[in-house]
Design goal:
single chain; alpha/beta; TIM Barrel; 10 helices
Length: about 300
């Protein structure tokens, strides 16, 4: 049985992209269903920083990271640069291809200035591995004028698959982090993979549903369903070996419908790379447009 480790994951990698510490590698405005209903504009800044120390099997975010830590002041500079080029928005996402509370990625001495730059926003959403949630999280929350939301990768509750993702996380780790965040009045979001490697199409939907159930039982307020994709070398090799295939559009539709039917919290289907999903599906354009509306309106249509 293939159990990928750091060495195997690294051996499959193609070259990383050229990025610079003085610029975010991307930034955009996107609408999102709001916690209290309605739709808000979200400014998303994809920060450039040192690569995450966790070598997750399915991750391709390392392609836009650096191999060394950024200097203090460079992350606030990236945020400032992006915000001056974006229209106003109510929420701010600071996604850094890893863990916001990893001191080698985001210098802790920059947290105060980051919070100052976030003052106009009602909510700031960051991402972090469950095992790095703690004192730095609460300190950053206290600096913000608005609310803090932490997004964590749950990925899947299939124990065998989770172990083989090389994430170095257990379900208990996730549940403990979610409980701590809720206790400390920090909102939570979970990333859930739809059809991670080693699952069939039928199993993919079953385990996406079980992962949604687990996340909401753990107190998560929002779940983002991520169609598992190729693009990092490792996933292409797993596909070649017969251990991976991307989810179908039908499976994605069913997963989102199930999540919304629970009415336990917000549920989104990530449409970032949807162009590569089921390219020959019937009525594909209309079906994807329906998913986008469901994301915004948070109801089955």
């Amino acid at each position: 049985m293939l159990v990928p480790d750091d060495a195997w994951v690294l051996a499959q990698r193609p070259a990383r992209n050229a990025v610079s510490a003085d610029r975010p590698y991307a930034f955009l405005i996107e609408p999102e269903g709001a916690p209290g209903g309605g739709v808000v504009d979200v400014a998303t800044v994809f920060l450039t920083n040192r690569e995450c120390p966790y070598r997750c099997l399915m991750c391709d975010l390392w392609k836009n990271t650096l191999q060394t830590s950024v200097a203090p002041g460079e992350i606030p500079g990236q945020i400032r640069w992006a915000l001056t080029r974006l229209p106003s928005a109510r929420h701010l996402k600071l996604y850094n291809s890893g863990n916001f509370f990893d001191a080698k990625a985001i210098p802790p001495e920059d947290h105060a200035e980051i919070a100052r730059l976030a003052t106009p926003f009602e909510r700031v959403i960051i991402e972090c591995h469950p095992r790095l949630i703690g004192a730095r999280t609460w300190a950053f929350r206290d600096r913000l004028a608005g609310d803090l939301e932490v997004a964590m990768g749950l990925e899947t509750v299939h124990l065998d698959v989770l172990a083989r993702l090389n994430k170095r996380m257990t379900l208990d780790d996730f549940a403990i982090a979610a409980h701590s965040l809720n206790t400390e009045r920090v909102a939570t979001r979970a990333f859930i993979l739809v059809r991670p490697p080693f699952l069939s199409e039928i199993e993919a939907l079953l385990w996406a549903k079980r992962s949604l159930d687990f996340a909401f039982r753990a107190g998560v307020g929002c779940c983002s369903l991520i169609p598992t994709r190729t693009g990092n070398g490792a996933m292409e090799e797993l596909e070649r070996l017969g251990h991976f295939a991307p989810p179908s559009l039908e499976t994605l539709e069913s997963a989102l419908e199930y999540g919304l039917s629970l009415r336990a919290g917000r549920v989104f289907l990530d449409l970032w790379d949807i162009d590569h999903v089921s390219p020959d599906a019937t009525n594909r354009v209309e079906r994807i447009a329906r998913l986008a509306r469901m994301n915004l309106e948070q109801r089955i249509m």
